[in-house]
Amino acid sequence: MQTSVQWLENVAFEAQSESGHKVIMDGSAEYGGENRGPRPMELILMGLGGCASFDIVTILKKSRQDVTDVLCQLKADRADTIPAVFTKIHLHFVVTGHDVKEKQVAKAVELSAEKYCSASKMLSDGGVVITHDFEIIPA
């Protein structure tokens, strides 16, 4: 996997993925930015949510659950010192569907956290405490 990050101006950068997608990253005005895109650490958190959500959706579909929506809400704490790494991250999954089984959602969350989500594994191996929970909403 490869990517490139090109400096645009001030503290704005454009990242391009190997698959050709582009993302603008920018800092806050405090650091000379214009808030034109997410911060790099926000993208890491978004990546974790995307990785885990991908797992949840695919696992639930394979277990024949009639899922109509999955929302992953993440909250993170960061160290007060530089580098301001993530110290804790909590993922809350809101799964909507028809007759979705709690046991199947719990299993999907566990499998994502412990086996499939590369982003979660990388962050937890780096010392980040990652927790999960979920709720099911009937469609």
UniProtKB/TrEMBL annotation:
Pfam family, one: OsmC
Alphabetical list of InterPro entries matching this protein: KH_dom-like_a/b, OsmC/Ohr_fam, OsmC/Ohrsf
Taxonomic lineage: Bacteria, Pseudomonadati, Pseudomonadota, Gammaproteobacteria, Moraxellales
Name of this chain's protein: OsmC-like protein
Transmembrane residue ranges: none
